[in-house]
Each structure stands twice: as C-alpha cells, then as structure tokens.
Amino acid sequence: MNDNLSEIIDIFSETTDKREMRRLFEDVFTEAERTDIAKRWYIFKELYKGTPQRKIAKEMEVSLCKITRGSKTLKKDDSVIKKVLSDMYDESHI
Prior knowledge:
Layout: H1 2-14, H2 18-28, H3 31-48, H4 53-60, H5 64-75, H6 80-89
Helix pairs in contact: 3-5, 4-5
C-alpha cells in the first residue's frame, strides 16, 4: 500500500498544469471525495483565521469531531497545512 501511495504522491507532485490536476482529481476521486477534501480545506482555513469551532461546525453541518481534528493538526509544530496557510494569509510572507 505504501508503494501505491508513494506513486500517487509522485504523480500529483509532478502535475503542474491546473487543468490537468483538476482532471486527475476527477479521475482519482469521486465527487463525494472531492467535496470532502474541499470541506476539509475550508475548515483548515477558517480555523487558521480564528473562526470558532462551533460556528464552523454549524455552518458546514459537520460534527465538532471533524473540526477538532483540523484544530489538532494546526497545533502541531511541524504542520504542513499550518505552513501553507501561513504563506497564504500572513503579511510577513507577502
């Protein structure tokens, strides 16, 4: 399984064209999976911006457990998601 995951990570990381990446997502993930990925990304962004967990849960109609998972990820010192969001939102990186 790790070899397969490694291969798909390589394929995704080598794909630089946005349209090709979208098509790859459509080929690999179901519509429901793509929706879940987009929701998870939105949750990470809102948490990073300081939106209260309960507000996100209500707005997204998801359990607090899903929100808490995202919050724990952002609290990790080595969180890649936190670094990406910092690069996106923090003025020091603009």
